[in-house]
Amino acid sequence: MKEIIHIEKLTKAFNDVSILKDIDLSLYEGENIVVMGKSGIGKTVLIKCIVRLIEPDSGSIEVLGENVLDDEKLNHIRQKVGFLFQGGALYDSLSVRENLEFPLTRSRLTKDKKKMEQAIIEVLENIGLIDAIDKMPSELSGGMKKRIALARTLVLNPKIILYDEPTTGLDPITAREISELIVDVQNKYNTASIIITHDVKCAEITSNRIAILRDAHFFAQGNFEELHKSKDKEIHAYFN
Predict the structure, then answer these.
(1) Among 33, 168, 207, 210, fewest CB within 10 Å belongs to which?
(2) Distances (CA, A) of 174 to 120, 128, 143, 163, 170
């Protein structure tokens, strides 16, 4: 498989406290990696460093063969990487249609209003929310907001999606639906993803591979079945 994210010796500290230390990670084409770990341990910091929403202290990050730390290439890289924030980060004053138009307009991929409308309709149909196209975020449930936030990411046809706690705050049924949608997106759009979660069921449904972060580094990696059956008590504790 083709490597599309390559992270080597990534280090980040806040107030002299190491959050990430000499992190190595590879993501391959069409793969979903789930990153697990205790709250506040640095999982979200990792994916924010990948698109430089947080500046790394040291190390190297390559996305689709390009150096993220090169300022001249950063915006080009960001257009190929979707980021799904934990709260969805929809614009409250804009309708669903306008929320999806915003990244298309800003990216300047097309100025053709008809093509924009077609792209928006297609992605909303793919996530099952075409009927919500003219609703405001305040009219949406938590699960619907997550889906619309994902649609806003997908409308730019990203090669990679970074998910930050996609099922947080959702009831078990809706959380499962969002997890299954992540897999649908992987298959329909041929995306690769890094998924930050503490939700074991989400990890089971979405992951091809799991990496567990502890003490500023990855101390275990494998598929769900391997880690779930591990006799190591510290690993097994994440799956109870």
Answers:
(1) 168
(2) 23, 14, 6, 16, 6
Token pair for 25: 């990670």
Q: Say how many C-beta atoms besides its own lie within 10 A of residue 166's C-beta.
A: 26
Does residue 46 register a pLDDT over 90? Answer: yes
* DSSP state letter for 18: E
Structure tokens, 38: 């205790």
- Residues 54 and 108: their CA atoms lie apart, in Å, by 25
Tokens found for residue 220: 């275990």
Question: How far apart are alpha carbons 116 and 118 in whole angstroms?
Answer: 5
Structure tokens at 162: 């970074």
Distance of CA 156 to the CA centre of its chain: 14
Q: What is the Cα–Cα distance from 164 to 159, expressed in whole angstroms?
A: 17
Q: Write the pLDDT tens digit of every residue in 71-117.
A: 888 888 888 898 888 766 788 888 998 898 888 877 665 567 788 88
Structure confidence by residue, pLDDT tens digits, 141-168: 888 888 888 888 888 889 999 999 998 8
- Which whole-number Å values give the CA distances from 170 to 2, 17, 39, 194, in the listed order? 34, 32, 17, 20
Give the pLDDT confidence score for residue 111 in this predicted structure.
65
